[in-house]
Amino acid sequence: MRFNKTLDAIKVYEAGKPIELVVREFGIDSKEIVKLASNENPYGCSPKVQEAVRGSVENMARYPDDSMYGLKAGLAKRFDVKTHEVIIGAGSDQVIEFAVHAKADSESKILINSITFAMYEIYARHVGAEVIRTASREHDLDAFYALYLEHRPAIIFLCTPNNPTGDSIDASAVMEFIAKIDSETLVIVDGAYMEYARYKDSAKALEPKTLISTFDNVLYLGTFSKAYGLGGMRVGYGIASQEIITALYKLRPPFNITTLSLEAASAALEDDTFVQMSIKKSFEEMERYEAFADAKGIRFIESYTNFITLCLGEGTDSTVVADALLRQGMIVRDLAGYGLNAIRVTVGRPEENDRFFALAEALI
Amino acid sequence: MRFNKTLDAIKVYEAGKPIELVVREFGIDSKEIVKLASNENPYGCSPKVQEAVRGSVENMARYPDDSMYGLKAGLAKRFDVKTHEVIIGAGSDQVIEFAVHAKADSESKILINSITFAMYEIYARHVGAEVIRTASREHDLDAFYALYLEHRPAIIFLCTPNNPTGDSIDASAVMEFIAKIDSETLVIVDGAYMEYARYKDSAKALEPKTLISTFDNVLYLGTFSKAYGLGGMRVGYGIASQEIITALYKLRPPFNITTLSLEAASAALEDDTFVQMSIKKSFEEMERYEAFADAKGIRFIESYTNFITLCLGEGTDSTVVADALLRQGMIVRDLAGYGLNAIRVTVGRPEENDRFFALAEALI
After folding, report:
1. Which of A213, A197, A200 is CA-nearest to residue A139?
2. Do B50 and A70 touch (CB under 8 A)?
3. Cis peptide preceding B42, ω within 30 of 0
4. Residue A265, number of CB atoms within 10 A of its CB
5. For the segment A261-303, what is each residue's pLDDT rounded down to a tens digit?
6. Contact list, A46 vs chain B (CB under 8 Å)
7. pLDDT at residue A34 above 80?
8. Domain residue spans in chain A?
9. Predicted local confidence at residue B23, as pLDDT
10. What is the pLDDT of residue A23?
11. Between chain A and chain B, how many beta carbons pairs sit less than 8 Å apart?
């Protein structure tokens, strides 16, 4: 059977190996496996969130409130925006999907960083759009601007802090950059890890309200998958002008998040103390990774997230290291596929990090 | 900002009113509201499913097993197919989305019944495909075939049992119909309510294995949202040849169902006794609706599902009736938007149906 030609160019996204798969492949006891590969919050979510979800289990037969009234009101309050400036997605991934499908087609170009979140390119391929990449590892906004002038893309993605590298752009630089972009180009600011950056350095903190009250052509993305500890529940959001939100809404399927996800995300917004505690612990543990790298004489990228990218020396192959760790039940992300001889490690709980250092000692 | 032209033709799907919205609009106590509008299973899901989900709440931070190994194995066993002949979606809606995006574009036509599930047309509009409809209320396969010859659609949807009318096509007629369709046309058999049809009349039961072993161009859809009582958890599936599944997989976003949804659906497959009990009760209660309609002298469509469509007389307006019921806390679906002077009522628990009959007595 023939399918649309756009499918020919699509490769399937390779997610971090789930614990279940490692258990099956290598026969390792699931209790022995440490997964530091998908930037999940190792402290999970607030006990209050767990309690709220347990209390809602009897509602699983009921479709969720498709207006998402409560969650949108919570986000609007948190960010001091209007509810009609908010859209909820099954992860911020789905908001990216809406935006790409709303704005780009096979005639369009989409401008992204050389190394960045894989889903931008995947959704670009879904619509047959051409992906233009900058050359440097970290976001170089001058290079972005030059390519913008050359290619006039329909969409520009800025991922800050960037995944999978962890670096972050100054908020003032982002504002100056967007001011130079024409109002017909959609600029998507992906702040999936913004809670971490905001905690570490206020100069990196981009506020959705400032962005959308200054620019009509900006879509800010956030997620409950990282700092909020709800990676498994698939809830993200977009914040933008009503015009953009209305367009994206046309592509939103009904009931796009689950009844329990709605409950979990709404409850998570109510317990910021837990979130801030987990961010604080993460950066305390991050210092141990930096000290480990310094002691081993390897470079790392300064991170504004809950993960750290370790750039290995010439004599060490990241794929070999990641594979050796995997066979001992330690799952990290090899960045060879991104053209980097590096591994990305989610900063885990102290005992998980102990295990990483013990295993990595012999490999790096 | 300009968006893709395809957005101009898209209208937003109107879901059944959730209980929360009625509470807000009319200030009715949520305990007083009965929702018989979205064909949810009023008996919910198995207690074993609830238990499994409660036990997994601490895993909400973890992304789901993206291979969906366990759930796919469960479905493959249930339907005697291979795991590579199965794809999981966030509701069968999402599998429809994958199929339409994989097979159709703005040059394509999609053939559907005059009155049928709204999402077929919505996804067709997403890709700019032209929708061709038959003329009759129930699936007329001769009319489908004539329109197929005339328009050569990329996709044909057969919804059996049909939503929102409840009627069902004989399985043998479906098999004879598909045999006449060329192998480049994708025939999608939406069996969202098939568990109910199979219980009531085996002549209506389409088996995925028979379909896909006979035809390379068929995609069978099923869901956990109806008989399995997991409407809020967004899990559906497609079963087809490996060739079709591989194409659809290219459009599947990673982690497209939640960690708890995966747990719930896998557990639900293990307790068929509960599902069969709820189907049995539903048809027992259905008889009361049929008796009510007969007593009132109004027609109904014989239903192979967990809902019944009551066709109102000339002097009674379905929108007026649905609105009057709503103001008293009884939510049903008005089918005026489908061109029918009818209401669709989900068969509820006995006490919910009592309430419907009591309120409807004065209105119909």
Report:
1. A197
2. no
3. no
4. 27
5. 999 999 999 999 999 999 999 999 999 999 999 999 999 999 9
6. none
7. yes
8. 5-44+273-360, 47-271
9. 72
10. 72
11. 236
- Domain A47-271 in this protein, CATH class: alpha beta
**What's the rounded Cα separation, in Å, for the pair A113 and A120?**
10
- Beginning with the edge strand found earlier in the chain, give each strand of the sheet holding B86-89 in spatial order: B86-89, B236-240, B218-223, B186-190, B155-159, B109-112, B130-133
- Put simply, the answer to whether B251 touches A13 (Cβ < 8 Å) is no
A234 Cβ contact list (under 8 Å, min separation 6): A90, A91, A94, A225, A257, A258, A261, B255, B256, B257, B258
| Residue B48 tokens, joined | 């074993």
Q: Quick check: B232 pLDDT over 90? A: yes
DSSP B156: E
Residue B2, min C-alpha distance to chain A (Å): 7
Name the token pair of B234. Answer: 């967004």
Which superfamily, per CATH, for B5-44+273-360?
Aspartate Aminotransferase, domain 1 (3.90.1150.10)
In single-letter form, the type of residue at position A88 comes to I
CB contact under 8 Å between A62 and B20, yes or no, is: no
Contact between A258 and B233 using a beta-carbon 8 Å cutoff: yes
Q: List CB contacts (< 8 A) between B226 and chain A.
A: none
pLDDT digits (tens, 9 = 90+) for B290-329: 999 999 999 999 999 999 999 999 999 999 999 999 999 9
Across the range B52-56, mean pLDDT stands at: 97
Q: Tokens standing for B333?
A: 């679906």
CB nearest to A44's CB, from B58, B126, B264: B58
% of chain A residues with pLDDT over 90 = 91
The pLDDT of residue B21 is above 80: no
Token pair for residue B66? 């993206």
Q: Closest-CA residue in chain B for A6?
A: B102
- B83-110 CB burial, b ≥16 within 10 A, e <16: bebbbbbbbbbbbbbbbbbbbbbeebbb
Is the bond into B254 cis (omega within 30 degrees of 0)?
Answer: no
The encoded tokens of residue A308 equal 């750290």
Element (H or E) spanning B52, and its range? helix B47-54
Q: Which residue type sits at A301?
A: I
Place of tokens 């909020």: A228
Residue A96: name the closest of A73, A116, A71 by CA: A116
Region B346-362 average pLDDT: 97
Nearest to B21 among A38, A43, A65 (CB): A65
The pTM assigned to this predicted structure is 0.95
Task: Report CA-CA distances (Å) from B168 to A145, A363, B116, B159, B192.
Answer: 58, 63, 12, 8, 12
Q: Which of B58, B234, B264 sits opposite A255 (nearest CB)?
A: B234
Q: What is the predicted pLDDT for the residue at A24?
A: 76
Please list, in sequence order, all residues whose beta carbon lies within 8 angstroms of the beta carbon of residue B186, skipping any fewer than 6 positions away. Answer: A1, B99, B103, B154, B155, B156, B217, B218, B219, B244
| Cα-Cα-Cα-Cα dihedral sign, residues B109, B112, B115, B118 | negative
